[in-house]
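### Sample
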Amino acid sequence: MKKVLMISHNFYPEIGSAANRMKNIYQLLKSKGYLVQVLTTEPSYPNKNTYEDPSFWDDEELNKDPHITRIPIKSRRYSGSIVNRLLYYLEMMWRMMFAILKDRQRYDVIFVTSPPIFVALVGLLAKWKGKNKLILDIRDLWPESLKGVGVFHHPLILNLFYMIERFLYRKADFIIINSLGFQEYIKKQLGPASEKIVYLPNAARQFEMESQTAEKARNQVIYAGNLGRAQDVSLLKELAMKLSENDIGLTVIGYGVEKNQFYEFAQQNGLKNISFLSPTTRRNCLHIIGESDVAIVTLKQKQVFDTVLPGKVIDYMTCKVPIVGSVSGFSKSLIEKEKVGLISEDGSAADLFHKIIYLLKSKEMRQEMSKNSEAYIRKTLIWEKNIETLVECIEKVTDKAGMEL
């Protein structure tokens, strides 16, 4: 039985696409006969207090799983200070490295996911310690995304991060990307070794598709996910005002550094049409999304965000809910090509509002987009099918390792 060490900052029971991705990969690799050991942190996203609620611990098999090691972190990650975040990441890296050095188990493959880049360095240490093969999972271009959100511009430190990034790409035996938009950027870093880039997108589980129905509410719009610096919350505020003026309901299942600012804005302006819901389990979140008529996605107009495919886009499509968005690049291309939503050309709240109104008034268009979403997910984005891509990578690197002995 081949042994895989999975190293990830985010993991069950945390919310968000990163934790959901790692949970699915873990469970499906186990179902394929691999022995997988997880090294992760205690749940803290969006904050530690969230996980005092037992409803998040809704998988008894994972709750009792002895193959999951959780590292406690004392520093605060989710604050407005980039310094605090860096301290959090550094503490996490050192604690994880210490755990790696103490680990006496032998593995065939190290599977590590980034960002943050500090976790990838833990994977590199594990590779060197055990002379293992390394599969590097890239969910975001970091440190490019640091510049994109405009919170960190120190040139010396950024250049150091870029050097580490290139080094990691070159030392990995395979590089897994969850967005095809990352491909060209990483190819430029790798040069001749770019054939080791493999696409494994975020996806839906088969049972999640089966649980969705076509029943929708009337005049109900939803935003689900992170409300951070990348999501253009100022645009969402303008849009919320227009929806309120026209008596259209908006449900927000949000978290992140700008959530409170959005909530206070709604209270100060008397936007009674907005329902702010606390973060909830994935099952509940998908159910709430599925009851909506239209779903919103926004990203700031920065070049780095042209490469990403937000997890919420896949979740909206899983729930068969038409999308209205202010996004560009890969996300825009997918939504328009598959005819699962409408994208604002000028990225204004007025244009987003008009597109929402158009869809709310056109039941036929919503139904067509719902069918297109379901067809695309079933054909392209089902975890039970796509896990074979990672299985092939594991088999190739382990076969190669066997030949080298």
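Residues 206-380 form a domain with the Rossmann fold fold (CATH 3.40.50.2000). This sample (Glycosyltransferase family 4 protein) is used throughout the tutorial notebook.
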